[in-house]
Design goal:
This protein has 24 helices and 12 strands. It is mainly α and about 525 residues long. The chain folds into 4 domains: about 200 residues, HUPs (Rossmann fold, 3-Layer(aba) Sandwich), CATH 3.40.50; about 80 residues, no CATH class; about 55 residues; about 90 residues, Arc Repressor Mutant, subunit A (Orthogonal Bundle). The strands form 5 sheets. It has a 3-stranded parallel beta sheet. Strands 5-6-7 form a 3-stranded antiparallel beta sheet, with no helix packed on it. Strands 4-8 form a two-stranded antiparallel ribbon. Strand 1, helix 3 and strand 2 form a beta-alpha-beta unit.
Amino acid sequence: MSEVQDHARAANAWPFAEARQLDKRLGGKAPDKGYVLFETGYGPSGLPHIGTFGEVARTTMVRRAFETMTGMDTRLVAFSDDMDGLRSVPENVPEKDMLGQHLGIPLTQVPDPFGTHDSFGAHNNARLQTFLDEFGFDYEFKSATMAYKSGEFDETLLAMLANHERVRGIILPTLGEERRKTYSPFLPVCPDTGRVLQVPVIETDTDAGTLVYEGEDGKKVEVPVTGGHCKMQWKADWAMRWLALGVDYEMSGKDLIESVRLSSKIARLMGGNPPAGFTYELFLDENGEKISKSRGNGLSMEEWLKYAPPESLTQFMYQKPTQAKRLHFDVIPRNVDDYLQHVAKYPEQEGQKQLENPAWHIHAGTPPHEDAHLSYNILLNLAGVCNTEDKSVLWHFISRYRPGATPENAPTLDRLTEYAVEYFRDFVKPGKTYRAPDGPERAALEELDAALAALPAGAPAEDIQSQVYEVGKKHYGDDLKSWFKALYETLLGQSTGPRMGSFVALYGIDETRALMGRVLAGDDLSAD
């Protein structure tokens, strides 16, 4: 075993903990198929959303951790349940009336409301793949429609048919009285209407591989369970897929805990071993409600990437996956800066510490080495105090603070200025509210102005920060939080803000003193 594998087996990062769980399930050796299969599932009844990306990102983190720890070959399948019938019309798509006429039709047979693909399912599948490709994920896309119709699932479907009543016996206790009367793990596709039917199955013929159901008109209809003539109900379908594909690992959200339990029970009934897994918490919108691809609430992937680099989104997915997190615009700046800090620390770390650094997982073991130079929050506040949407204005101050940095040799910083300007214009600027300092605050600001005047030009950020602290301690004692809040509200027009020493060093001592002079003179900064 290599030194890296030793470090991986000891690493405390959650993807390595998951990798150890999977290795234990496999008994420390690769499956007979020759590789370890990871799967993520996608229901293309609505446009792909950020939660879908999160599942693929997190699964990929576990996959890379497992490969590093064991050296085994792996694959990742992104599976789309696109043979599912359209159950409702999403709120965030065009042609709602047209879609309403296709309820119950498999998603790959529903016309595309956007007019770009052969079906609504194909459109959403393409959206998903395009986004995953842009992030560089290594995956194989698999369509339920193709898997059912090509015969890939046929052997497992026939085995499920042979166990029809036993599978029903697992699911029936979880259903209401009325639903029990009609439940079957198989959903026939009506040969006349093309709809996926939830109808009573009257007979099964294991030898013939068929079932008989009572149609909507009361007539008996016999269909094969193979070749795409039937699909399976959700929980039975999940178990069938695990068995047919040989899935070894699949994570899922907290809302699917009961589904995992029942699907695992069905898999064991069929003589299989359910995959190792992980339950992650759900994302919440600004109102604390679960985000939904059909409702379109919460942040979209495109919206996040308008204001921040892709790596910051992956950082958000990495941190505390077992805790529910608000997925709203105000979480973006913190995640950008957390990501930058992790990347900056990585070269100074060794061995196990590197494997526990989120940057290792975000970049599959090879984080970049470029110095970002400045934090996202500092840039936001610089844009705010300059009241500018022009990144060249920010570079005027950056060039003085970091003389060697240019847009050409510091591309990460240059990208951050563009993101910061976008975020400032849309979220910071509309919410700025300045207030005049009260008597004690005026006295503290006047003393800080004098302290800054005594510093030499080009004083380092730490020296400036020391002066800010000294003035704060003199006027506020241990309540430095109130001191910084006063600085932010009077100088920046917001209740939170940056490390003042770094901000003053970037903006300039003279410029900061001029800003304080305007505040003390009673100027209305909101009029700028």
